[in-house]
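Model: Ready when you are.
Researcher: Fold this.
Model:
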Amino acid sequence: MRKYSVLFTIGAMMLAAAFMLLMQPAALAQEDEPSEPPFLASFYNAWVASPHADAEAEAFVHWNDEGEIPVDCAKCHSTPGYLDFLGEDGSEFGVVDAPAPLGSVVTCDACHNSTASNMTNVVFPSGAEISDAGGSSRCMQCHQGRASTVSVNTALEEAGLLEDLDTVNAELGFINIHYYAAAASLYGTEARGGYQYDGKRYELKNDHVEGFNTCSDCHNPHSLEIDLVACAECHEDVESVEDLRFIRMQGSEVDYDGDGDLEEGISQEIETLQAMLYEAIQAYARDVAGTPIVYDDLAYPYFFIDTNDNGEVDEGEAAFPNKYNAFTGNLLKAAYNFQVSKKDPGGYVHNAQYHIHLLYDSIEALNGALTEQVDLTFANRNATGHFDTTAQAFRHWDEDGEVPGTCAKCHTSSGLPTFLKNNTNIAVEPSNSLACTSCHDDLVEFTVYTVNEVTFPSGQKVSFGEGDVNNLCLNCHQGRESTTSVNRAIAGAAVGDDEVSSALSFRNIHYFAAGASLFGTQAKGAYEFEGKEYNGRYQHGEDAPSDCTSCHYKHELSIQLDECAECHEDVETRADLRLIRADAEGEEAVDADGDGDVAEPIADEIDTLEADLLVKIYAYATDTIGTSIVYEPSAHPYWFIDLNGNGAADPDEINRDNRYATWTPNLLRAAFNFQYVAKDPGGYAHNPDYVLQVLYDSLEAIGGAEAVATYNRPPVEVVADS
């Protein structure tokens, strides 16, 4: 006989008591003091009004004429089938061995038994296994869908259409994700429930906020209703389920559907993309597959031949004999994703970005074969900046499954709060992007973590002012190296400036060290040469924006062009910023690049010196060291041996085994500063004269006085303390 745990035994007694209460309502009504424990009554009352208890629902009566529920359906459409899947009937766990009898719904004992209570793992139709689902695993066994990327690819492979995606195959039928695949949405690319196109990155599990990341965090496990009171703690306008559709967080300041409306709810963005995809599906079916198509979300198998080609489902068309029979590989993928999105009506909460990815990619794929394409000109697939879940800044460690402690502070959602609390980080799992909680310590008042000053890699401490919110930005946008670390490496090598040492390797400032640029010599982020003086914090102008959030939108991170235009009247686009030349009033303009043009944009002055520094680096490596070097900005560690000496980064040269390894102190300093400037593309706005001073000195050090004979070093300005 099966041995049950003490916990299950207690649970069984509780359920029995609840069942007795159900069977004796008249007797209980006559008692002055009900004998049932109130918590059992509340559980029962919640459950009995839920969809899980609706004995007349199609989900439970669909097979009445067949006399039993088939093996493939029994797990989720009957309690005996679910218990069979769990092995509670003595059979093997994880499979349904026999059809289930009619007449049951999802009752208490489906979820309250020893196996279900201890279950934490879930295997999705794609074969992906989630091992830490906890109590939600009970829900996810059914709310996972019945198909996946793998299912679609298998069908295409069997039809011989993996490569020939625009050829009709009459034997190819529609593949249905099934209903309410909320867990497939929630886990995104980890479950691969949608069709994921090759070469694309997709959203990971959607981590909402702490305390709202599982099924029962948001839904009452018995009534299945959403806890609107809990939602309203952050989303103050939420009073009904319908109100949830109009939520749009400030981290979603991207026009995904391209309609120009950034105020609409994220669900409305998804609905428009669904309509756009349906438009693409119908155009493709007519023009490429040669057979018009219509969709009916209430009639299996959902896609039918549009017999009169009027774009609508007319009487008699939504019938099984008229099922669509002209699928190509591309059409099947897109139709599958359309159904994935339609059949999870809560997808905008479960994982909005995943649905946006699937819909956008499907439109894009169909457009490739259309003459008259669905217009994606103003639509957007990805969020921006800190919320771009496809960015290398967050996806780099997906295959490893762990972001190292040295990277976690700035590349995971929990990293900065952990650092601020403990002054260190540990390795953690990758996260989609940053989150509201990365900067906000309160999601009701949306206050931010208080930071008074920030220590840079050089050891220097800088600040915008005590408690200034912009100090938060400096924790990450500071770079990871400095004058100090480069000097330390050179000192360890103990060689002359032009002597090669195997102890030297490239030191990478890292990306977007805007804070280091802005504070200049106060941060010493660039390599500052001994005996030289440099500008400190850049003050943009009197009463002009001079910190992070006065120039950039806090969430979208784009530049507040209207602020720029108050002084620079010709600025209308971001590209216009590169055309600015604003010398201080009363000061003589400095022709840094020596071309005689003191009115050219300061960005152009920087570009000239930056390009020349790369030329001088190449010449120095070849002529002084004897090993040619080449730079590739998108491949770590950026500097490689130029095997054929052609001055170009050829494909066979860009690999770690071919990294440049014959460094001298002079080459290291120059290469470090070149990378410093290259990886802060906004340096011309953050601190232009500091950038020019660094470039000038690097050119002089590696190329001698002749290298800067025609250039002019901007003078050092005295600035107020920060």
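Researcher: Now this one.
Model:
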Amino acid sequence: MERRRRLLTRTAPLALVAFVAFIVGAVVGAPGSPQVEAASRFADGWAAGNFTAMYRELNAGSKAKYSVEEFGAAYEEAEQVATIRTLEPGAPHDPQDQDGTTVVPMPLTISTVAFGRLENELILPFDDGGIAWDPSLVFPGLRSGEHLGSQIELAPRAPILAADGSALAEGPAEEREHPLGSAAIDVTGEIGEPSEEDLARLARHGFTPETPVGISGLERAFNTRLAGKPGGSLLALDQSGASIRVIAQSEPMQGAPVKTTIDPDLQEAAVAALAGRFGGVAVLDARNGDVRALAGQAFSAPQPPGSTFKIVTTTAALQKGIVALDDEFEISDGINVGGRFINNANGEFCGGTFAHSFAESCNAVFAPLGPQVGNDDLVATAERFGFNSPPTLYAAKYLREAKPPESTLPTEIGTEIELGVSAIGQGEVQATPLEMASVAQTVANGGVRMPTSIVNNKKLRPEAEPVRVMSKKIADELTELMVGVVVEGTGSAGAIAEAQVAGKTGTAELGPKEGQENEENPIQIKDAWFAAFAPAEKAKLAVGVMLIEAEASGGEVAAPIAAAVLSSGL
């Protein structure tokens, strides 16, 4: 009994200490404190960008004063002003008394684009079962009645360079200069005011709405690289907008140049050959696929490619063994496919060998190949050529900035007549000069399609790998067919003195001219095309030309443009 009394006496002080520690912990926020747990949930929601989860931690009075939409908008605005990239909360401190209000200091590490890495505490006030919120809590360091502001200082904009190191665009954003004049702008793009939809994205990179930024071409795709990292001051402002104090400050960091694959002489030749007409020209290195020149709407305005698409149809037909170059076809002015009569381009009679039919671009021979090849094989062949995929101009993250359109065709084309129309490059088939230049490059390169990179910087180049589209044998057969187009067919205007050109003409009919819809033989709106490479043996350059609403056929007006460019390049 005495021993038991001694044990109780010895343990009583320990129990008292534990009891007192428990009470103190409950009061000041040991694990299990509702204020600490609420602060943790609030900060975790913030780090995840979950404003709804944050809003749940507010007390009833705050929720009555501010809607969840107003609450979220306040944090989104703060993110843009402060250029927040990431936010990492630390462990909240124990509750403290601050002038009669219970507060929980919440350590935050905030990484920003313009102002560097900031470490501070956000003081969260608690009352009536939740956070007593007001707009000053959108960023640590603000006091009640204050809001965020910034003074952004831009870095000097870096130049865009040609393959030889000469400048295509240089100077500050406000006064960008182009040493090649307007000939370079089709490649570099332009500087201007951002669109409404781009404001939020640009703000996160530190660019205010008034900041001149890249709005097209390489200036847009590589805007953040060229512009560098903005600096300046992050400010606490009073309700009138006057600056009270500086929260953070940093120096701007100069951007890095973008070196392209563009040949300045070829670029000038392509722009001169297009001569201001509505359309586009793309020139590629036939061996590695690199872009050597872009003029006009070279990759920005997909249109029906007309008979240049017959290169794709022929590839599929040769692979499937449906045709051979010496196969004979009936001479006619058109053919019935799926219950509809498809005319030859100008109602002419054509046929004979498949090689001759290719040279004369005979719809009566090619339209039936669509149903014979079939939907799956025609689509699969086109996709190996690059259709239904973004153009491989640069790395994927920069493609997302520029969003260049794809050359496309439906994956489920449909009926026999729709397959027939697609086989001759009409219907819902859409392509760009860049895509058709890539088709020509693939044939020239023994059947291997190369990425069409426009940048030399290794880290900026596309991640795409070469694609084997067809066998070397079929590529050689297509080369023979395309030489026939220039030697004896519709593309004779594409011939040059410097080398043998292999090409394919195309003329896409888009419908009758305005006001002639009800006439018996209306004048058709046409797009004129030519896709080619040269020399036919050991090709060096591949080219795609498109004229929108052209005055004549592809052989008449697009082929001479390609000839001028190829002649200049060779």
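Researcher: Key takeaway?
Model: Confidence is low (pLDDT under 50) at residues 1-30.
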